[in-house]
Design goal:
The complex is a heterodimer of chains A (317) and B (265). Chain A has 317 residues and is mainly α. Chain A has 13 helices and two strands; from the N terminus they run H-H-H-E-E-H-H-H-H-H-H-H-H-H-H. In chain A, a hairpin with a 6-residue loop joins strand 1 and strand 2. The chains are: A mainly alpha (317), B alpha/beta (265). The structure holds adenosine-5'-diphosphate (ADP) and magnesium ion. The site of magnesium ion has 3 residues of chain B, from helix 2.
């Protein structure tokens, strides 16, 4: 029955121009609705981004009316909650960089090595075991990492370095490193896998060993992807909040000693947000100034990463 | 190109030539599906041997067995023996890395490394710790691959910017830079235009002075033009092996005749 109807319909398309046109219009109307809906969803993220930038700017600008911009970005003393007040953000930047450097030291070599092992050396079976474990690592809530740092990593560090403080940068940066490691491994894995097999074959046919093929053809060919993964990992480490709030301390300080307590930009924002700084006061506005700086840094790093990645995609086109 | 009298002269020399590869009862399976069955062949030195046959008959599989490239296919396994100048290539104390240094390979699709032209050619010698002058080695390899004049002013440009034909000659230069004794070519012209194909065929004539060449091709005209010996494979079995002229004009097997006259395959 239904089939017959369809056949009939198909056989009489010229029956009525008007109906055909109507059907066409209806079709377009539906298509348009779907397109509009999809556009709205995509647009939502743009709107959100713009909204965040607007809020940050609106709250941060009044701050810079009270505190000169140069004092903020070049000052080395950060005591916005204590008298005499000082708004030099560099101690927070320094603390953040200390965390990022430590995390990079953990995540980059191990992440890259894992990717190389998984992609170039591991058997299918080993790969099928390690990959899910890495994904589990990526799924652990960051607060758990924070307590892991406090209750396991810090005591461990203290047995080797007695000068280790209860809250310290090293412990936090190690767990932040473990946290971003799956991301590095996964992005590096993608980069290595994008290298066509024909290049490996070509290198093997020249009498190269697996190590030579990996280090002298595959890795150089995927270098931009690897670098992009490093930049993205660093930008995630900069934004990481929970573990550093719990484990790194709340002592804004210009130091390069990882065993001391420090404070990162994110941890400062948490501290003030949880405190009772009244809206409109200058200490309240500091969170937006710090957040704006944080946003600018991570945005810059993401742009760099995408630039590098684009270059990398062009190689095989 | 080569004339019949020249060909005759060559075939007169054949008896004096050494056998470079001797395969006996070579059977290669993927899993338990045989791709090469009981192949026995003697490939003479300093000549061009063509392996022809319909698509999927096992030409590439057999070619890869000569430099142990099948080692990278986990499900591939080989029975039988391949002697290279009298040495079994598949015994335990043979390092496949050494085998591949002496037996070079050019692939169907040009696969230059995404590096400069210079570094592509220098790659093999550098990795294997060549102690001599690398610039000279790069130049002589590019000259032998008939590419030098086209690239000598832009050695630092990316190899991927070259045309397909140039890329393939670069891959030949890259293989020559290892100073191999044999060059295996797996349909080296199948991705190239006729002009580039002709250049590579001319090049092969020059190369056989110094090297033994085994070329896989599905193009029978090409096999007839360039090779001295031809092996015809069908469904993994060696149907006929002999001097090219004879295989193409007076084949012994009915199937060979059908194939070379284009009646099947
Ligand atoms: N990696 C592989 N795994 C399984 N079977 C394969 C593989 N490579 C080739 N084969 C099979 O082996 C046979 C011969 O393949 P091949 O040597 O590539 O043929 P040719 O080069 O003559 O076209 C084909 O049937 C093909 O499907
Ligand atoms: Mg093939």
């Amino acid at each position: 029955m239904l089939k017959n109807k369809l056949v009939q319909k198909r056989r009489q398309p010229e029956k009525s121009e008007a109906i055909a046109l109507g059907a066409k219009l209806k079709y377009h109307w539906k298509e348009g609705l779907i397109k509009a809906g999809l556009f709205l969803c995509a647009f939502l993220s743009v709107v959100t981004t713009i909204a965040i930038i607007t809020v940050l700017a609106r709250e941060a600008f009044p701050f810079f009316r009270e505190v000169p911009f140069l004092d903020f970005v070049a000052g080395t003393k950060w005591t916005p909650l204590l008298q005499p007040r000082s708004f030099g953000v560099l101690p927070l930047v320094c603390g953040t960089l200390l965390i990022v450097a430590g995390a990079a030291l953990v995540a980059l070599p191990i992440g890259l090595a894992s990717a190389i092992y998984l992609g170039e050396y591991a058997s299918r079976r080993v790969r099928s075991i390690i990959k899910p474990v890495l994904e589990i690592l990526a799924g652990i809530p960051t607060v758990v990492y924070g307590y892991f740092a406090l209750t396991f990593v810090t005591p461990l560090l203290a047995t080797f370095f007695p000068s280790t403080q209860v809250f310290n940068a090293a412990s936090a940066s190690i767990v932040v490193g473990i946290m971003v490691l799956p991301m590095v491994a996964s992005l590096c894995d993608d980069a290595l896998r994008a290298v066509p097999d024909s290049l490996r074959q070509g290198a093997y046919a020249l009498g190269a060993t697996q190590f030579e093929v990996t280090t002298r053809v595959v890795l150089p060919a995927s270098l931009s992807g690897v670098v992009a993964s490093f930049v993205l990992a660093a930008s995630r480490a900069i934004g990481e909040t929970m573990a550093v709030t719990l484990a790194a301390g709340a002592t804004p300080k210009m130091t390069l000693n990882p065993l001391e307590s420090i404070q990162t930009m994110t941890a400062y924002i948490v501290q003030v947000s949880l405190g009772d700084a009244p809206a409109g006061t200058v200490e309240y506005k500091t969170i937006f100034a710090v957040a704006a700086l944080l946003f600018a840094i991570t945005l810059g790093m993401n742009i760099v990463a995408h630039k590098v990645l684009r270059q990398f995609q062009e190689v095989y086109e | 190109m080569i004339t019949n009298t020249q060909r005759q002269a060559i075939s007169n020399q054949v008896s004096k030539r050494r056998t470079i590869f001797q395969t006996s009862n070579v059977t290669i399976r993927y899993g338990d599906k045989p791709a090469i069955r009981n192949v026995c062949l003697s490939i003479p030195e300093h000549l061009i041997t063509a392996i022809i046959g319909p698509s999927g008959c096992g030409k590439s599989t057999l070619l890869r067995a000569f430099n142990r490239m099948n080692d990278f296919i986990p499900e591939a396994n080989m029975k039988g023996q391949i002697l290279f100048l009298g040495t079994d290539l598949y015994v335990k104390d043979i390092d496949p890395v050494d085998v591949r240094r002496r037996i070079g390979m050019v692939f169907q699709k040009p696969n230059p490394f995404p590096k400069s032209i210079f570094r592509n050619v220098a790659w093999g010698p550098i990795v294997s710790g060549y102690p001599g002058n690398i610039n000279e080695r790069v130049e002589s390899s590019l000259r032998r691959a008939a590419l030098w004049d086209e690239v000598k002013d832009r050695l630092q440009d990316s190899a991927t910017d070259l045309s397909g034909g140039q890329q393939q000659r670069l891959c030949i230069a890259r293989a020559l830079a290892m100073e191999p004794e044999v060059i295996l070519m797996d349909e080296p012209c199948s991705a190239l235009d006729p002009v580039s194909t002709a250049r590579i065929e001319d090049l092969m004539f020059e190369l056989k002075e110094k090297y033994t060449i085994i070329i896989v091709t599905h193009n029978m005209q090409q096999a007839a033009r360039v090779s001295d010996f031809t092996a015809f494979l069908d469904s993994g079995s060696l149907v006929e092996f002999g001097q090219t002229e004879k295989v193409f004009t007076r084949p012994e097997q009915k199937r060979t005749e059908e194939y070379v006259t284009g009646r099947f395959g």
